[in-house]
Amino acid sequence: MLSVGFIADRIGRKRGSIMTASIMFVGAVLLTASDAPTINGLFLMFVIVQAIYGVGVGGEYPVASSSASERANSFKSLRNFRGRTVVLVFSNQGLGNLVNTAIILALMAITGQHGPKYSARAIEIVWRVQYAIITAVIGFMLLWRIFGLKENPHFRKRSGQASGFGGRKMNVLLGHFSSRIWASSITWFVNDFAFYGNKLFQGVFIKIINPHANLIQVLEWTLLNSFIAYLGYLLAAYHIDKPWMGRMRLQSLGFLMSFILFICCGAAYHQLIHPANIHWFQALYYLASFFAQYGPNCTTWLIAGELIPTDARAMAHGWAAAVGKVGAIVAGVVLGQISDQNKFIVSAITGLVGFVITFIFVPDTTSLDLMQLDLYWDKLMAGNGQDYHGEAVNPKNLSLWERMLGRGKLYDLAAHAAQLKGVEMTNTGHGNGNAEGINKSMA
């Protein structure tokens, strides 16, 4: 996430996406073909190969989000549905979880693995075929990116400015956008702490519902959870661009509902695990899974790619995503040391922290044209950020914290229009792309 995000801002979105797909393809081939004379050797091989595959998957986060948001922003037909476009890209992660679980279930049934006495040979067939299917999909994706994908127009316009990233750019980025980077990183951290933490201990929860569940039954419950989560992805995509919802409200709603649902599970834990109440427990848990998707799991992936100008977008997204995965690692350690009841209470606290940080530090970029953010960045880089008066400093596009800093006072639509008119006149006959694009978006 860190390295590929940094590289993708320099080599471009197309080359970055080819790079991540190539790494994933190599990793998927090795996963399918991995073997060793002993089970410990096979496990070691899997650890190494998963690390290789993980570099591709991690790098896909900043590249895919940045590319999707910029591509949508480049086309008039998609500009008002930028959030939907990006979230639908991300929703394929949820679809992958759903389809993968269904494939494993089908393969288990085909090979006759129904009870606790499993055949090692049959299980090997299951996971090799599963990975072979994944490898084929990634192979198709790689070929399409090489021969069918074109560099998105938005990044292409900025490629000259984004080619280098020296100390000056880093100082401006951290000096002016640090609160956005911090907010997108910490909200991702607390979301992944709760999301992946509870995913890691999903088997424990299923055992509470059904103490005698075998592997097939655990997979069936997992399939149901994946389906509910996928509905959350789709509903988030549908509502993310609505003026009455937007990014910040949806993320706040998801965090708040996670807090309420998990605190209910924790506070009434001993009553809920009673056989007479187990279905209430089940409903609360699956609702929490729904609101994780219909909220912060989708919005953190989207917002991290919209808060920062194009020149540093993938790198900043990579930072936030990497911090998020640190949250997942910490969850695996912390939640493994506490009781099942306290797992829900700690997860509830992370939801509350996410809600507070979102409310104070996360701006709502639902209606913001990304070109405006780039124009603001250019002014900042030139040392005259105070001369920018456009939509990037419109109070409705700023966080509460940024409004408290007084950045919204720069907003003056008439002055901004006069500046753009001056730029257009200066560039008459030379087709200034940025000015033309901004004038069209303002119209």
From TrEMBL:
InterPro entries: MFS, MFS_dom, MFS_trans_sf, Sugar_transporter_CS
Ranges for domain Major facilitator superfamily (MFS) profile: 1-366
UniProt superkingdom: Eukaryota
Membrane topology classification: Multi-pass membrane protein
Keyword Transmembrane helix set for record: yes
Main localization (coarse): membrane
Compartmental location: Membrane
GO cellular component: membrane
Keyword Transmembrane included in the entry's annotation: yes
TM annotation in the entry: 16-33, 39-64, 85-110, 130-149, 221-240, 252-272, 284-304, 316-338, 344-362
Keywords: Membrane, Transmembrane, Transmembrane helix
Entry protein name: Major facilitator superfamily (MFS) profile domain-containing protein
Source organism of this protein record: Coccomyxa viridis
